[in-house]
Hints:
Elements: H1 3-11, E1 17-18, H2 20-27, H3 31-43, E2 47-51, E3 55-60, H4 67-71, E4 83-89, H5 92-101, E5 109-115, E6 133-139, H6 149-167, E7 172-174, E8 178-181, E9 184-196, E10 199-209, H7 229-233, H8 239-259, H9 261-271, E11 278-283, E12 286-295, E13 301-305, E14 310-313, E15 317-322
Parallel strand pairs: 4-5
Antiparallel strand pairs: 1-3, 2-3, 5-6, 6-10, 7-8, 8-9, 9-10, 11-12, 11-15, 12-13, 13-14
Amino acid sequence: MNKDDILLALRSSRSGFVSGADLAASTGVSRTAVWKHIKKLEREGYLIEAIPSKGYRLTSSPDVMIVSDLKRGLKARTIGREIVHLTETASTNTLAMDLAHKGAADGTVVIAETQTGGKGRLGRAWTSPRGNLYLSVILRPAVPVHKAPLITLMGAVAVAAAIRENLGIPAGIKWPNDILIDGKKIAGLLTEMSAEPDRIRHIVLGIGVNVNMDVRELPPEVRKTATTLAAVTGTRVDRTALARTLLAGLEKWYQRFLKNEADVLDAWKELNVTLGNRVAVSGAGTMLEGLARGIDAEGRLIIRLDDGTLRPVTAGDVTIVKGKT
Ligand code: BTN
């Protein structure tokens, strides 16, 4: 029993009030322990009214996720069996890499309300105020090292599918792993790996979704090209429900990846908004322009240059120059 159980009991009370005796009975602890948990919740920003003849009533909650709420209905074989939730951390990816190094189990999820040093692709920062989703999943797939990039594509499929399923919005994937809605970035993925030449030790799949943050908190340089789910839907989005759908989707897509990675590539192709367009790819000091023809079995983007040469690209930023004709 912990304070989350008390919180869930307070939240599910129809009349609002739950007596200390009922809370103690339903959670299996003493009334003193209940009182201590109530005090702890108050220190975390919950407002709880206490009336001696009636008991306790939750009057307002800070917008934080609760692990037991997140786990509700989740049939986690791997992803989310262990969930580490933090109010604040430098980067969930950094913490997850550290935990993985210390032996954390396959599927462990690290989730934070805010990050003080969120990391983006290509050494960029990832703006991480409260109100969004920041999570990293530790994976230990028994696949060859060159298959690792497919894990990021698998994550992108799960994120786009979760947004579609949860909110009914047609999110798409821009190679390699930006999630877009109407051409604007809503989420990004950053994969980090520890490997030996012939073996993956662990992979950390980091996912950041712009959910309820104020769009004015986005850095000025990305304000035109990025957005949030709240801005798209015009309403606050339930982060816990979205995170639950995402974790269930990651479970499904991770198992499919382990069984038959071609399924992931097929799903990625279905959801992508890159292939078939004329694109410019920048990265590593070079710029390529041509037709985005396809992706190969290792997730590389195949560009057909204007002289007809096919060029596989491993990393970079893609801009769509001209839509499908
Ligand atoms: C990108 O599109 O540049 C990738 C962004 C990845 C951000 C997420 S937020 C959770 C995890 N922790 C980090 O520090 N980064 C990833």
